Amino acid sequence: MPKSPAADARPGEGGELHQTTSTPEARLTTNHGAPVSDDQNSLKLGPRGSTLLEDFVLREKIQHFDHERIPERIVHARGSAAHGFFELTESLEDYTTAKILTEVGKKTEVFTRFSTVAGGAGSVDTPRDVRGFAVKFYTSEGNWDLVGNNIPVFFIQDAIKFPDLIHAVKMEADRGYPQAASAHDTFWDFISLMPESTHMVMWAMSDRAIPRSLRMIEGFGVNTFRLINAKGEATFVKFHWRPRLGTQSTCWDEAVKIAGADPDYHRRDLFEAIDQGDFPEWEFAVQLLNQAEADALPFDILDATKLIPEEDHPLRVIGRMVLNRNPDNFFAETEQAAFLPTNIVPGVDFSEDPLLQGRLFSYQDTQLSRLGTVNFHQIPINQAKGCPFQNFQRDGHVQTQVFKGRANYEPNSLAEAGEEGGPREDPKGGFRTAAVPMEGAKVRLRAESFADHYSQARLFFRSQTEIEQAHLASALVFELSKVTLDHVRARVLANLRNVDEDLAKRVAGAMNLPLPKASAPAATPIDLEPSPALRIVGKYPDSLKGRKVAILVADGSDGAIVAAVRKAVEGDGGAVFIVAPKIGGAKLADGSVLPADGQLAGSPSVLFDAVAVILSEDGCAQLLKEGAAVDFVRDAFGHLKAIGHTREVGPLLDRAGIKPDEGVVDLSAAKSGDFLPPARTRQWAREPSVRTLA
Ligand code: HDD
């Protein structure tokens, strides 16, 4: 009986190929095993050529190389992933039969991929964009893929609009730009004509769309699913991931500069954290609603542009996910991972959400052009590792399983003749769709209950702190200022008036544009109770755990102060990164050499959460001449970071135009521990002094 190909594999029977090894006797061969005698020179007629067509070693190597790339994902092309485990801490057995949600304490392997949406595979990590949050659970009942985002709602209500949404946000069709950016005509044209997108636009313009780290984003299943219990009863469920490190963001100006300083900022951060044993962790939580509770909501539970406020239906934390192993090979694992919302386990079921229904087709289908075969489930990262998979599907491109016997159809009675008969369906334990009663005429209609496009956009905006509201308004100003079509800008403003009059005024005012008449909403928006759970400011964790502090030194720096700051930061869970003008390090005042982790020009302060500048008078005088040093402190200040400094650094701060506030700590006068409280957060109060917000 065929199993998951990795299990019990023998050469020629599928499963893992003989991998290259690094033992001294390991021999370089062609793909077909022929030993290679010379990998430096092609086969030529005489030492100066011409090269011979006969050279199968050359041809095989070049041909394989020519085909190394595969089509990138049509969306979410840029991504980073890691292995880990999920552990259930509370059973949901009253609601579901799914083993993954009822076996407390059991650890299930996962593979989780984070992504941006709009940019290509080679684009930068820090554009303003939604982040994908896709988790593949290798459960004992088959793979379960929870393919979510870091925003709990979606732009559109019906999957039929997805190609339009994506065409509008991607590079414009004639010019091929902008890459990985929503700040352009076609995106805002589409948005302005699709008021249902307004709620998600609020989220996308908030600081959640410029995260500090992939380890610091929330995750949401977005669509409503059902849980099915042993009695066949259904309960609506929303899935949530909450990062242990808190939800943290960057400043927009900072995100833009990070894109240049380190295009792989998030990928590197995730890889390095895991590599160093600092494993990111998330709580897994659910919101459960029965039919009566769903009916009582002021919107339709099947509408993916709506969230369920936590204050009304609290989150129930039922487990945790830890990512503790980097992929061995980016292409084989991260790139070839195929996440499918149709990967579901018995006890969990879909809802009729029309966005989800379309997704159920799209993901399976897209793998055919991306991975090139219906057998993509045999690629190791996609295999159902937690259990055997067995059926009568056969052949196809790149079939790696060697099936034995004649049983490739069902029903069959071959077992009666002593032959292998193959697997059979399991009416009891197999996946069953909930028998939800349904009736109706066939129509192409949007339900009336989906008509309210503004109440939750308003809820989100009004639930934010003042700082977050100002950032959101400023993001809208930035994006709309990149739009070149006046009528599009005007239509967005007309829609914004239905969200919040003050927001619309601020955005129009900051663009010096008149406020148009409000657009006519399909349903009159209502004022909902604000939901403080939707804020991120004021919730940064009270430690530097997971964060990075740069210490800028030069020749003559005081080693004792460096050591004290290092001790304080590391004691608080943070990591220290020494920046010096030269990569070989700096000669400290006591004559010892402090090695550098990064050279000043390549380690701007945008890459760190806080900075300490520890210089002698001479060291400071030298760095006054370095634009990178002036930018180092100016940007740290502008991005609302704490700056610790020795007294001698005064002239550098002056050169950068810094007027010290509570977040600027004189380390010569204070205890190094005094640097910690401001380093753990951003200096929000400083912001009006460094930029004008809408
Ligand atoms: Fe999607 C990829 C998340 C709606 C069609 N989507 C993709 C990925 C994530 C999401 C995280 C990347 C998975 C990975 O890392 O490989 N998508 C969402 C969420 C949605 C959503 C949270 C709304 C609730 N998507 C959506 C719709 C459609 C698609 C409505 C089409 C009808 N999505 C795709 C796709 C992708 C994809 C084209 C590209 C690569 C892939 O599937 O495997 O099929």
UniProtKB/TrEMBL annotation:
Gene3D superfamilies: 1.20.1370.20, 3.40.50.880, Catalase core domain (2.40.180.10). Residues 1-46, 409-430 are annotated as: Disordered. It catalyses: 2 H2O2 = O2 + 2 H2O. It comes from the Bacteria. Its cofactor is heme. Belongs to the catalase family. HPII subfamily. This is Catalase. It comes from Brevundimonas pondensis.
